[in-house]
Amino acid sequence: MSKGLLIIWTDVEPSAEADFNDWYDHQHLEERVGVPGFINGRRYSAIDGRPRYLAWYETETSDVLGSVAYGERQANPTPWTQRIMPNFRNVTRVTAEQIAKSGEGIGGWCTTLRFRPKESAKTTLFSWLTTKPDELVNSSKVVSALSWRPADADAAKGTTEAELRKNEEQPPAWGLLIETGSLEAAQRAVVGLAETITSLGGGDVETGYYRLGLLRIAN
Fold it and tell me: What residue ranges of the chain have pLDDT lower than 50?
């Protein structure tokens, strides 16, 4: 079974932004990575593109995101979480299965390309996403790249945390995460990718460039 991913893009109400960043750095990221089956977690700030913030987590399998332990965390948010989450804006949250990954490094930059394909295009795009990470790592200055599609597993459905952010949550997306050592390398790596995805039936592609702020690895 492939590894899982939990990916969240969000803006935040300006009046809560300082509190949001403290919460993420000093509680939330560590709390999530502490759930059994989570491997690591990263959070970023946007240099170009919206939403302003990105966080993503690798899990041992996509089933971890449907686990009892993850559901219990979602059902019992801390007081700090209850204060922060109503300030989320423009949220895209994806529980996903990893399609393919190439490269083992961790870059200081992460570029995301996310899209919501037509049903008729999903088989073609899945095939394209199976080979694209290897191509990116082998042909450009990409540290690592991975592709994903949404998974069914999601123990957050109907929980307290889900209710806290539901009014701002967008549909899940497919996509690519590309890690590089510089913004220039990121910009070179993505040339033509959005156009190709659209031509294959992926619809509109949202591209964002993000700088790494914090990495946590499970104990």
Answer: none
